[in-house]
Amino acid sequence: MSLTTDPKDPRLGKWGGKPEDKPTPQDDVYLVLSDEERAKGFVRPYRDAYRHVGLPGPKYPLRDLTDQERERFKTGDGRGNPYVKFEVYPKELEPLTGKCWTQKQLDSVGQGCGTVTTMGRALSETYARDPHFYGATYCYNCMRHFAVGKDGEFVWEGTDERVGT
Ligand SMILES: [Zn+2]
User: Fold this and answer.
1) Is 80 exceeded by the pLDDT of residue 87?
2) What's this model's pTM, rounded to 2 decimal places?
3) CA of 126 to the centre of ligand 1 (A)
């Protein structure tokens, strides 16, 4: 594996920074922020190990989709998984009203493999400088990229903090 600071590096094409449905070898080249950008300071603590814990579950009550919603969201997650439930957000979260869930997502809540993956310095510093830089990260045990962020599958080892938040 090697690193590049050039978002247009032609070797970056293969993975594209998104979660994957199937095991895939780790990418050959990963994009990181430049030394100068990382030297501007971290907005999160430097951390180099994350644990695959699986998706966080719904926080609010779930209900079935109405016929109207079923029609409106009929493409599902766009990867062949229809939405089956709607998580109803409380009034304080307006204008957001809720979130659709696929059965596949509901089945993977909390179902990470528990493996801790560690990263090299440049990748770790990139997370610390810009927590939203990556859309997904790799689990060595599952051999796949999974989503990061508040609805992602990883926490920083030793914390409850989601990677990418
Ligand atoms: Zn895993």
Assistant:
1) yes
2) 0.80
3) 22
